[in-house]
Amino acid sequence: MTSPDPLVASIRIAAPPDVVFPYLIDPALLARWFGDATGSTPEPGGAFAIAFDDTKSVQGRFVTIDPPKRVVFTWGVPHSDVLPPGSTTVEIVLTADGNDTVVDLTHHDLPRSERPSHEAGWSGLLKELDRVAGHS
What we know:
7 strands; 136 residues; Alpha-D-Glucose-1,6-Bisphosphate, Chain A, domain 4; alpha+beta; 4 helices
């Protein structure tokens, strides 16, 4: 069953949105904080594919790319009946706040069984985004 409320996570990064945004779409920069970017094509309709290690990966499609404010992509796990590729949607909004960027991530339609692992995963990933984009 899908959770009625989306998963929401936020972080403040000490860099402006135009510095942070490329880390959300550029395959080489995605690999610095997200995992190994494999086959991502940063354009609406293009593939969103990330491998975390030899056994875990996610797949979907870029839906919206609106630099430097917003990116939306679908999300799922290959060969999963619970969370198949493209079955959920992730929206990341960047808001300038002085010289910083507030990153608001919303993961829609996540199955309840997947919520705890994704809450922990997104929290860790946003900290990694801060580490690389906020100190680049």
